[in-house]
Design a protein that fits this description.
Strand order of the largest sheet: 5-4-1-6-10-7-11
CATH superfamily: Spore Coat Polysaccharide Biosynthesis Protein SpsA, Chain A
EC number: 2.7.7.60
Bound molecules: cytidine-5'-triphosphate, magnesium ion
CATH architecture: Alpha-Beta Complex
Largest sheet: 7 strands, mixed
Number of helices: 7
Oligomer: single chain
Structural class: alpha/beta
Function: Catalyzes the formation of 4-diphosphocytidyl-2-C-methyl-D-erythritol from CTP and 2-C-methyl-D-erythritol 4-phosphate (MEP).
Pathway: Isoprenoid biosynthesis; isopentenyl diphosphate biosynthesis via DXP pathway; isopentenyl diphosphate from 1-deoxy-D-xylulose 5-phosphate: step 2/6
Radius of gyration: 18 Å
CATH topology: Spore Coat Polysaccharide Biosynthesis Protein SpsA, Chain A
GO molecular function: 2-C-methyl-D-erythritol 4-phosphate cytidylyltransferase activity
Shape: globular
Organism: Lysinibacillus macroides
Number of domains: 1
Strand content: 15-25%
């Protein structure tokens, strides 16, 4: 089962505080954006990449794609104010495919096996997202005081990729746009349609590079993987 992937890369990286798009920062000499793109460049099931970018960064990114031999990018549509807008601007250009994956460009450690599980699950059920079980004790807090301890068994921390049958994600985005609904992920838009979204168990390495300390985790993950391969 083949898929195309939407990679929103048009953020500002405010929490990283680098003064520019965090995706240009390097992990072991290679930009974060390229680490992520290489996963999909090498994934045999992936037939196309849609990369949402800031218009003023498009040229710079196109040069990077050439330098690193990334050939699967079909288009670099302009991103929007919010991540959801950036995803939507890619979806507006994409033609009918079997499965669409949406994946944060800031998650460079996604693996081929998790992608394959997501694609299979989306093919079977319509919608599937990556997540990991919550590790810490979780409590609901109001005004600085514990209200209750939440049953951890039912809690999952959600990541990307999120995978959908093409018609389903198109419908979910159209409805969200029509009513002006802004979700924090694509699954929320599908949940609003009343459609079941399945979980695929991912791993704790699939972090989103968000703050400075994530750069340290990120390089540690890359070093460990290089050792595993040696
Ligand atoms: N993103 C996007 N368009 C936006 C906002 C975010 O394409 N308007 C992308 C980011 O480039 C990133 C992904 O969505 O790959 C996840 O967003 P996040 O980790 O929040 O990145 P930033 O928005 O860049 O960071 P921050 O929130 O700290 O500013
Ligand atoms: Mg953000």
């Amino acid at each position: 089962m083949q898929y195309e992937v939407v990679l929103p890369a048009a953020g500002s990286g405010k929490r990283m505080g680098a003064g520019h798009n965090k995706l240009f920062l390097k992990l072991l000499e290679k930009p974060i954006l390229i680490h992520t793109l290489e996963v999909f460049q090498q994934d045999t099931l992936c037939t196309g990449i849609w990369l949402a970018v800031k218009p003023e960064e498009r040229l710079y990114i196109q040069t990077m794609l050439q330098e690193y031999g990334i050939t699967k990018v079909k288009s670099l549509p302009a991103g929007g104010v919010e991540r959801q807008h950036s995803v939507h601007s890619c979806m507006k250009e994409m033609e009918q495919v079997d499965i669409v994956l949406v994946h944060d460009a800031a998650r460079p450690f996604i693996t081929h096996d998790i992608i394959a599980n997501l694609v299979q699950s989306a093919h079977t059920y319509g919608a599937a997202i990556a997540g990991v079980r919550a590790k810490d004790t979780m409590k609901k807090v109001r005004n600085g005081v514990i209200e209750e301890t939440v049953d951890r068994d039912s809690l999952w921390m959600i990541q990307t990729p999120q995978a959908f049958q093409y018609d389903l994600i198109v419908e979910a985005e159209d409805v969200a746009e029509k009513v002006g609904f802004l979700g924090t992920d694509e699954a929320m838009l599908v949940e609003r349609l009343g459609h079941a979204v399945h979980i695929v168990e991912s791993n704790y390495e699939n972090v989103k590079i968000t703050t400075q300390e994530d750069l340290i985790f990120g390089e540690a993950i890359l070093r460990k993987r290089a050792l595993d391969l040696a």
